[in-house]
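For reproducibility, we list the full input for the GDP-alpha-D-glucose complex.
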Amino acid sequence: MRRIVVVSNRVTELRKAAQAGGVAVAIADLFRERPGLWFGWNGKIVDDNDASEPPGVKIAKSVGGSALATLPLTSDEHRDYYLGYSNSVLWPVFHNRLDLARFDAGFYPRYMRVNERFARALQALLKPDDIIWIHDYHLIPLGAELRRAGVKNPMGFYLHIPVPPSQTFLAVPEHRALARALTAYDLIGLQTQADVANLIQFLEDSVAGRILQDGRISAFDHRLAVESFPVGIDPDSFTRVSTEKPHAQPIAGAQRIIGVDRLDYSKGLPQKFRAFGRFLEKYPEYRRNVVLSQIAPPTRESVEAYTDIRKQLEALSGKINGMFGELDWVPIHYIYRSAPRDRLRDIYRSSRIGFFTPLRDGMNLVCKEYVASQDPDDPGVPILSRFAGAAEQLVDALIVNPYNVEEMADAIKTALVMEKDERIERYTRLMSVIRAHDSAAWSASFLATLEAAAKERSRDVAPLTTSMRASMARLARTPLAPVALKLGKEARKAGGQTRAGN
Ligand code: GDG
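The corresponding predicted structure, in tokenized form, follows.
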């Protein structure tokens, strides 16, 4: 079986990946199935030392036959590549927040240099038979850098965050370079069909990409496939009924609404708090009967936009608790730290409503985890933003507009009064989708499509030779027919076979 090389910004020790949640769990599971190498940043920041190169790759054996290859970032790299271009330009733009994007801060050159450095370090570890799977917006240019260094292996890229509408993407000053870098991959995997449509439109607008008859995209000399592979969870790890006493007891006399979101401006937390406040105002009979527990672990605290959102939430929860709270009832439990992973299942299961209302989200795994944790005989109700990728699949959740506070307040009421029969019907349909698209199906389908796309590439026309390029340049200056004929002859000599429709 061919080795899988997974590259992501952050690498977690496989034994700890299950605790980290999110996609780290899926990657760890993949490596249990087949041999692999996981390459990326080890989370450490070393002091800059202009005189020498940053320390190199460390390889550690891990579970099964797998290995981790990690390297640190220098403090300049961490500032410009990670906090800067990745999280203060690409993250806000891809989440439709052009207002927060720091285009003029000069982060881009170092973003490129880190990708070049990663490419050099990775290339030395590659074997000819490896399949390379690169993850997320931090590493968009990595594939092109590897190709430039002569790497021929199948290479796929998966974007975990949403693709914005083309007009928004085009606002990034470096959009052409990013588009060009994307075309170096054999396959780009995205969360939703809407993301696929946005990316194709962007490639058309930015670099005049074309859709071929076989559905692939052609831009520059490259052909690539762009498809959606909605990321999933391992439902069994949430459905398994715990034999221990539940960690999270229901709150005496009150039903719990649960939110679990990294503290990020894309997660729509202020709107969620306002909607809960509006619910208490509009339906006073529910006061004392409901609490909103919001777990919001901090992330990227040194990025200014994240400090702002934290202050906003502290003010809002204080205001709502002050306005509606009683000596023996606090309406919002706002927890500004991470909950241990082994408690999440019980917390989800003991909550009558799962409240997940991001303004924009690639997928939103938490909603899937919430559903999978429910008691099949008496399940709770998920309320889900229409702007989370998960809404394309979880159509039996209560789908809401996260900008519409009134609608969200009413959805809480609808969920609270929903009859058990309807809750069970919705849960059953949701679970069948979650099971059919679990994390194992996600990685297996991406990798199978990548191998097929890479085979297509090897059957394609041989890349243009230098003399063919010269002929094409002459095309602009000389009469068409003779040059076109010559070009055709050269293409045949180079072993190329033009595919219909290309
Ligand atoms: C990105 C995209 C996409 C959260 N709080 C705690 C905790 N978590 C775990 C959850 C879940 C994961 O982290 C979060 O995943 P999400 O999908 O909800 O969101 P992002 O972190 O923004 O992830 C997203 C995802 O990538 C995968 O492609 O769906 O759209 O933004 O597993 O359970 N885990 C623990 N304590 C917490 O307090 N232990």
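Residues 21-23, 160-161, 231, 260, 262, 295, 297, 338-341, 344, 361-366, 369 surround GDP-alpha-D-glucose (CB under 6 Å). The longest helix spans residues 304-324. Both points were considered when choosing residues for closer inspection.
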